[in-house]
Specification:
By secondary structure, this protein is mostly beta strands. It is elongated. The strands form 11 sheets. The chain has a 4-stranded antiparallel β-sheet, with no helix packed on it. A two-stranded antiparallel ribbon has the order 1-12. A two-stranded antiparallel ribbon has the order 2-3.
Length: 257
């Protein structure tokens, strides 16, 4: 299993300072505070050679390390400068630049660079997942009833059986900041929440406010927050809607691959 959560937004936290690495206004990685917002959000991709690229979700650019050990989020390349190998030792993660063979470190001032091959406190990083749901990967969303959300014959979102077939196959796409589009792979339509009553349905392929959801991670379960601020729930009858801001059993969701 990959050391990094592939296709899932995550944050890199320095064990040295406790601060989160961000893509700053100069497109350089720095760790100056404990924020976990758009500036700090990253996503990893595993390449065919077993290395990783680290993408800033703020700009879409990948972290690279030049020959002097300077690090920057410059472009979306996936070449030697952008490739990283992940080491895990004694519960700590270390990020080795394939280009320089040196480790990413966080200094006292928050500066991030690849200065040497040490694996000490300055180089120790923690990986904090932002959400448990993979993106760009087919999944099945399971309700508290044990049934899976599907796009039914009337394009309504409904959890009416325990099937895991094309009707139930869902895919998440990250679009901006902490917002996601949820697509039915049965018809390609996106889940939307009607603000008048909160009914959720797969009607069209729009990617507007009605179709954008936030994911709130609670370990093995998660909540979907609609554009109205209400939380998606599944009733005992299988109706999917975002009628209120409760976060009880009806609102708890999980996923299966």
């Amino acid at each position: 299993m990959s050391a990094l959560p592939i296709g899932i937004k995550f944050f890199l936290v320095s064990k040295h300072t406790g601060n989160t690495i961000q893509n700053n206004e100069n497109h350089r990685p720095t760790a100056v505070n404990k924020n976990k917002g758009p500036w700090e959000a990253m996503e990893a991709k595993r390449l065919g050679n077993g290395t990783f690229v680290l993408k800033s979700l703020k700009t879409g650019n990948n972290l690279q390390c030049d020959a002097k050990g300077e690090c920057v989020f410059t472009n979306g390349n996936e070449g030697l400068w952008e490739q990283w190998r992940i080491h895990r030792e004694n519960g700590h993660y270390f990020f080795e630049s394939i280009h320089t063979k040196k480790m990413l470190q966080v200094g006292n001032d928050g500066r991030c660079q690849c200065a040497n091959g040490n694996k000490g406190l300055w180089e120790q990083l923690a990986i904090h997942k932002a959400t448990i749901v993979p993106v760009e990967t087919p999944v099945y969303i399971k309700a508290h009833t044990g049934k899976f959300i599907q796009s039914n014959g009337e394009n309504k979102a409904h959890a009416q059986n325990s099937n895991k077939m094309q009707w139930e196959k869902i895919q998440f796409k990250h679009v901006q900041n902490d917002q996601y589009i949820i697509t039915s792979l049965k018809d390609g339509n996106n889940l939307q929440c009607d603000p008048n009553g909160g009914i959720c349905q797969f009607v069209n392929k729009n990617e507007g406010p009605w179709e954008k959801f936030r994911i709130e991670d609670h370990g093995d379960v998660f909540f979907l927050i609609a554009h109205t601020g209400n939380v998606v729930q599944v009733t005992n009858a299988g109706v999917v809607k975002a009628a209120n801001r409760n976060k009880g059993p009806w609102e708890k969701l999980s996923f299966e691959l």
